[in-house]
């Protein structure tokens, strides 16, 4: 038993305030999960992650990318180091993706068969093969609290026929992922140390932008019985209404007592909206990636509208205000826009550090507020 | 009145345990000052600087470089932001160099005359002119607690004749620096806010590697009466014995009741040695620059010998020990060599952050121990 999900309260809109208990601790939901690509949330020290945001509670769960850690430093090395938690000095829950998304988006010369995907490393061009079984072996070696089935990410836009065919492959791979996971899950590095607890494998609903396929995919996965369900293949360029519609249609089918995770979203207003619709977990590189490009999230004064400030603009050169006057994060408490602009313009390493801390605090605080509203 | 220097105890070897009181606070001496080039100690957030090291006291005084801040964002902008302390969110003492060293080492097409130095910016090739008067104006606008006279840095090696000639120019520039500083010091951004306190201008002893010239330079500067004296032009490639000899000869001449600052040193064993000889202040980019190249300071187990570990080496790939098992810094408390190697090899931004924090903690702890020995 590695997962318990308790729904404390469900609002009229479907949003639920819950607690997700995992081998490395409890997570208050709905939750935003910062992305720690190569076992590091880029530019942010782990102790800052733990205490970031107004509540000081910080990030309770973070992601790591299977594809990146498989290539470097290698999953067997991470296993020998005791798993990804010990490797990176992070003792709270973690989630790994299946590696599929990066195989499809980063690597070259992919060859997809029913068996799996052959690809070349984006680092050195070396040849690799990922199958559902191999993804499970890699994720078990990494040892995150939550692992994901290996799925095909269909190109976008895709026809109904192409999407249905891809979805079929995804379902077959989900079944194979589950079979391998069940057979091998006791090999997780912390199995004995945590009293025989194991990781939790989540299924992934696909079906592109077709409501009927989303429904079918969700039904098939629910039959397979996973402890949690992800909704994948969204936020890939489609209009916001479509994303919302696909999430809504899928939520109707998924069981109410299992956590639901929408992968790769989104903007601050999106994570708020989906959280209030009943999505329990979300992740996105946006806050950290935008930060490295000098794009800082803030609310327009006296309004709840979220905007992105481009800190490199000349107009901030002598602006003594914090990024967001209503933000209580450690960056806004100490530094001015003028200073942050100077750091960015000068190419200083501290720029990415401080910008990332602010943007993540902004996201964590947004979800903290949403949880408050759902509980209230 | 902007400076008070109290010597609490002097050891047989000449080392003194003291307290330097400056407009922005007290500094326990001897002290190592991290270098915050462009108003940022590269990759290290200010709150970490404040609490770094085993004692948790952190850095009590840091440097900023006049040349860099003059070019970007510009000293008048920094003045309008309230001075460099407010600009960077650092409320403890600071020191600025004169800009001379960077003009001589970084910029192109220098033309030196008795009047000053014409040079081209290393950033955009634009033409600039620094004189002693201009250096003072810039440093007063920046508003560090300690400013430095504008001096010529002679090339190395240099003949006795060339060194003597350069020293003459340095002395003339020191007198002009002092004159301008006295006339303009009330223009420091925090003059009124700090009850009429001003910055403190330190003289710089030059004289190359010639003991007689060092003595002459020190005597000339003491006649000019500065509140503190720096020893410049050392650690520029000469053997360690020569550095030590030049410091020793200069210390003999300098007054015992004024702080002495050796610029640009050094390795951990050097700052310890010079601290025990009677040097009160030192600065160096070495801990942060080495950190960015993956070079980490540590003591050999069971010995006091300081070595530099090259974290990129393959032998650390699965090394679960901290950098230095006797170090109590936050990096050694949390992260393994294997993880730090992974961050460095993967080009992750967190690598420079954590490596810099460790190396600075190592330096700060070294001086904390030296202060303890001098007080004991």
Give the topology, please.
2 copies of one chain form a homodimer.
Chain A: E1 4-10, E2 16-22, E3 25-29, E4 31-34, H1 46-51, E5 62-64, H2 66-71, H3 75-80, H4 84-88, E6 94-96, H5 100-105, E7 108-112, E8 117-120, E9 127-130, H6 132-142, E10 146-148, H7 160-184, E11 200-205, H8 211-224, E12 229-231, H9 240-253, E13 260-262, H10 268-277, E14 281-284, H11 286-292, E15 295-299, E16 306-310, H12 330-334, H13 337-345, H14 349-375
Parallel strand pairs in A: 4-14, 5-6, 10-11, 11-12, 12-13, 13-14
Antiparallel strand pairs in A: 1-2, 2-3, 7-8, 8-9, 15-16
Structural descriptors:
homodimer, 376 residues, alpha/beta, TIM Barrel, 6-stranded parallel sheet, 3-stranded antiparallel sheet, 14 helices, 16 strands, 40% helix, globular, tRNA_ribo_trans-like (chains A, B), metal-binding (chains A, B), tRNA-guanosine(34) queuine transglycosylase activity (chains A, B), glycosyltransferase (chains A, B), queuosine biosynthesis (chains A, B)
């Amino acid at each position: 038993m590695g997962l318990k999900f308790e729904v404390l309260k469900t609002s009229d809109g479907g949003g639920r305030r819950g607690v997700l208990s995992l081998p490395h601790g409890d997570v208050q939901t709905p939750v935003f999960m910062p992305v720690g690509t190569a076992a590091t949330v880029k530019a942010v020290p782990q102790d800052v992650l733990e205490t970031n945001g107004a509540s000081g509670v910080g990030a309770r769960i973070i992601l790591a990318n299977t594809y990146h850690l498989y290539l470097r430093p290698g999953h067997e090395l991470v296993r020998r180091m005791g798993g990804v938690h010990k490797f990176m000095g992070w003792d709270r829950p973690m989630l790994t993706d299946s590696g599929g998304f990066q195989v499809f988006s980063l690597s070259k010369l992919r060859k997809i068969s029913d068996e799996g995907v052959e690809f070349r490393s984006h680092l050195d061009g070396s040849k690799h093969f990922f199958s559902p079984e191999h993804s499970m072996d890699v994720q078990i070696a990494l040892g995150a609290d939550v692992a994901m089935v290996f799925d095909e990410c269909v190109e976008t836009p895709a026809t109904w026929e192409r999407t249905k065919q891809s979805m079929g492959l995804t379902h077959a791979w989900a079944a194979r992922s589950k079979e391998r996971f069940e057979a091998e899950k006791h090999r997780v590095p912390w199995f004995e140390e945590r009293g025989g607890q194991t990781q939790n494998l989540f299924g992934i609903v696909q079906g592109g932008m077709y409501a009927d396929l989303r429904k079918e995919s969700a039904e098939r996965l629910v039959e397979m019985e996973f402890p949690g369900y992800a909704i994948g293949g969204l936020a890939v360029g489609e209009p916001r209404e479509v994303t919302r519609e696909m999430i809504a249609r899928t939520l109707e089918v998924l069981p109410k007592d299992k956590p639901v995770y929408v992968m790769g979203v989104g903007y601050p207003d999106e994570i708020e909206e989906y959280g209030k619709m009943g999505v329990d977990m979300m992740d996105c590189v946006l806050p950290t990636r935008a930060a490295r490009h000098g794009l800082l999230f803030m609310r327009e004064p006296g309004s709840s509208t979220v905007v992105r400030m481009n800190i490199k603009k000349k107009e901030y050169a002598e602006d003594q205000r914090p990024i967001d006057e209503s933000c209580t994060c450690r960056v806004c408490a100490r530094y001015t826009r003028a200073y942050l602009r100077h750091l960015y313009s000068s190419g200083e390493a501290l720029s990415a550090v401080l910008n990332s801390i602010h943007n993540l605090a902004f996201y964590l605080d947004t979800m903290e507020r949403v949880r408050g509203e759902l509980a209230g």
